[in-house]
Amino acid sequence: MGDTKIVYDEKFGITTFKREICAQLGDAFWNELVENIELPDIDSECKCQCHNMYLFMKRLEEMTDEETLKKILYKVRHGLHPSQCEWAHKEFMEAGNLDDFLKKHLSDELNGFIELNKEKKDFYGQEITDEVLTFIKENPKMLAPERKGNKLYCMAFPCNMKEYLSVTDEKMKRYHACHCPFAKESILSENVVSSVLCNCSLGHMMNFVEAFMDRELRGKVVHSVLNGDLICEYEIEIPDDIMQKYVTSEE
Hints:
Blueprint lengths: L13 H12 L1 H7 L17 H13 L2 H11 L9 H10 L2 H22 L2 E2 L2 E2 L2 H9 L7 E3 L2 E5 L5 H6 L3 H8 L21 H15 L5 E5 L9 E5 L2 H7 L5
Antiparallel strand pairs: 1-2, 3-4, 4-6, 5-6
Helix pairs in contact: 1-2, 1-4, 4-10, 5-10, 6-7
């Protein structure tokens, strides 16, 4: 969803969490938070079923209130920044209408996947089989936000769509859906990383929307595989002035 054009210019890891936690709560808070625990490492968490991240998040939740924590994690957003999607604001302004912009964006993204399927090319390592392409077509919220009233709804790509579609076991579906190297392997353990962490993915999804609307927005996680759902889905509020200026009256 917009991310097909992003060039990732920051190495995402626990230092990204540290930066946002310290910005919100200070260095002393961080030092107390990490005292006597092993910091999660993005490259090796899979070897311990993300147990270090499970403990890190457990302590973080104990030390701060939920709203503050969500605000911090939303800023983490896998190291992304709206400036990486500046092109989207220009296209939105040229369209002059929110629904027209979203319709064109959906068409452009879908055509890209149709070409990948036709040319038997992959998407970040994912094979776009006929079955995968059908799944994408049936779930357009994976490609572009879907507007319902004054809300936008977005759905995350399963990390491994081919395997996600082939397995029937729900735990394995959640496993193949999850992208997060700090949480994915915990789905197969008894200690699943807190679903509050999914506010980082919310920020990732909102990165594109905040870019084309050129402002910070409010949103929430609606469904999360860390919380037992089979897919990850997010809701984003459309500001009143955007509704008035860029949405044709539905009455």
